[in-house]
Amino acid sequence: MANLATYIDHLLRSKGPGQALGRLASITRRLGPTSHRMEQVLTEYIDTLRPFGAHPTFPTPARIAARHASAMQELAAAGVDIAIHGDVHIDYSLCPLEVQVAQLRQAAERLRAAGILFSGFRAPYLRWNQATVEAVRRARLAFDSSLAIYWDAALGQDLPPKEEKSWQLLLDFYAPLDAARYPALPFWEEGLLRLPVSLPDDEMLLERANLPDGERLAAPWLHILEGTVRQGGLFVLQLHPERFRAAEKALRAVLTVARERRPAIWLATLSEITAWWQRRGEATFRLESVNDGWQVAVQAADDVTVFGRNVTTNVPQEAWADGWRTVEARSFRVDGPARPTIGVGESVSPKLVAFLREQGYWLEAATPAHRLVLEDTHFAALDRLPLLRKIEATDASLLRFGRWPRRFHSALAVSGDLDSFTWWDYFDRIGAGCDHD
């Protein structure tokens, strides 16, 4: 009974009484007593992405996935990226560390026993606490995509008071970061890669703002896409399979724009992004002083791009974007006295150094030959965006590794929590809580 009361409290806090009743009605429409209806939707979802060379990431509760093991195995065979969405669909932000560790251990064991491949994690409801990060790390999962970042996207209209209240209720429930203050970028947190989800998501747009499919629904997502392109960042689009048919036109519009952008946007799964982030992190460079310049040697995978700005080299460069040019050679000379890296002072924050390195910037101990030197002794999450803007605004000679593979400018990952195949799957969460076994 305690867990049932917790679930009812969740519905009221995240949706309000009216939306809670509407949610039960939508589940009745979108799901069915068997998995047939959802399996059809999943096929349509995958078929929509395929012409764009994209595959979705579907975080799925392990107990639901194991119940429909054959369908999940077929999804994986079709290129779908499966992530853990807990063992059952509960609010992780309410659970202590030991419960979360046990939940993830049980989820991983259940999926392995069912022969279902999986990689990372997303918390149900995008709700997590600091213990979640530790639990995911202990489970040795590749990534966490629970952190949300909110873009103040123009909806093309002012919401009526009722819808505005409902929108704000869900926004408060998600507790996202503000995209005006935080960059939409992957980042490492004590060995765990965090991949932020961009809001507004499908629930906010379809069920809170009541936007129709088409241009009006696509507009906020296109606004986010342009924002992440400006940052060279990551747009993790959240569209639950159960709402796919209500947003298919908008999704196609976003994918079409993404595919036509130049420089290109990388369409990738969350697991592909994680594998790339790990591989790119292994790239190294070496500079040696030579007469009137610097000899550069790069060791990196073939899909790691070297970019230069305000540098003169003895090898061809090709214009790219934002003043950066590609340097295809792995060994080349840079002319001039300025050392083409970012210098860091002895007391600079290690967090600053780690963040810039994972974003691809080349850093070295500061010398008189550096045009750009950083001395910041303190560095927090709120300092990331101002620091990136400072670096991008400098006219110093710089070399760096591309943030994304093969000269891509930014990245788009289409994801959607596959919470249920049937009515009965959905009702699994009722009564489930931190003490669920």
Give a nutshell description of this structure.
With 437 residues, the chain is of the alpha/beta class. The protein is built from 15 helices and 22 strands. It has helices at 2-14, 16-30, 36-49, 62-67, 69-77, 97-113, 130-138, 161-174, 202-208, 215-231, 244-260, 270-280, 350-358, 384-393, 423-426, and strands at residues 57-60, 81-84, 143-144, 148-150, 177-178, 187-189, 192-194, 197-199, 234-238, 265-267, 284-290, 293-299, 306-309, 312-313, 317-321, 324-327, 331-335, 342-344, 363-365, 373-374, 398-401, 410-415.
**Could you say what the CATH architecture of the largest domain is?**
Alpha-Beta Barrel
Structural shape: elongated
Unreliable runs: none
Number of domains: 2
